From TrEMBL:
Gene Ontology BP, a term: trans-translation-dependent protein tagging
Family: Belongs to the SmpB family.
Function: Required for rescue of stalled ribosomes mediated by trans-translation. Binds to transfer-messenger RNA (tmRNA), required for stable association of tmRNA with ribosomes. tmRNA and SmpB together mimic tRNA shape, replacing the anticodon stem-loop with SmpB. tmRNA is encoded by the ssrA gene; the 2 termini fold to resemble tRNA(Ala) and it encodes a 'tag peptide', a short internal open reading frame. During trans-translation Ala-aminoacylated tmRNA acts like a tRNA, entering the A-site of stalled ribosomes, displacing the stalled mRNA.
One cellular-component annotation, GO: cytosol
Gene: smpB
InterPro entries on file: SmpB, SsrA-bd_prot, SsrA-bd_prot_CS
Protein name: SsrA-binding protein
Principal place of residence: cytoplasm
Disordered as annotated region, ranges: 131-153
Localization annotation: Cytoplasm
A molecular function GO annotation: RNA binding
Record Pfam families: SmpB
Key words, A-Z: Cytoplasm, RNA-binding
Length: 153
């Protein structure tokens, strides 16, 4: 199965709006207790999440996984820091690339693949305001063209 495929649980729609995604990496995620049950129910929010490399490990910050409703007093904390599972070579490469100015690690989507939760992380360079405006104009023109072609048929 190619990377990024599987049952998509959550997507970070702002990632493509705010960043030029140059490279993507599939990573596993370390979960506790009932977190996987909440993920399977689709109770995940990736809106303000980001990844950071520290001490040779990659951590995902601000990923909100809602507590499981049928859980008990040992439920997880919703926005705790979660470790991502990557190979040492991948981590070394990410350290080198994120040292450059303007680059950051952005989670793009979370999905279930062969029963495991996976996160697709992108190496992104931040967009300027005028880049975002250009993208919006391009999308609007494509919509207008598609609408005109549909009305013609």
């Amino acid at each position: 199965m190619p990377k990024g495929s599987g049952k998509v649980v959550a997507q970070n729609k702002k990632a493509n709006h705010d960043f030029f995604i140059e490279e993507t990496i599939e990573a596993g995620i370390v979960l506790q207790g009932t977190e996987i049950k909440s993920i399977r129910n689709g109770r995940v929010n990736m809106k303000d999440s980001f990844a950071r490399v520290s001490n040779g490990e990659v951590f995902l910050h601000n990923l909100h996984i809602s507590p499981y409703e049928q859980g008990n007093i040992h439920n997880h904390e919703p926005t705790r820091m979660r470790k991502l599972l990557l190979h040492k070579k991948q981590i070394a490469k990410l350290i080198g690339e994120t040292q450059q100015a303007g680059y950051s690690l952005v989670p793009i989507k979370m999905y279930l693949k062969d029963g495991y939760a996976k996160v697709l992380i992108g190496l992104g360079k931040g967009k300027k305001k005028y880049d975002k405006r250009e993208d919006l104009k391009r999308k609007q023109m494509n919509r207008d063209v598609a609408r005109a072609l549909k009305d013609r048929d």
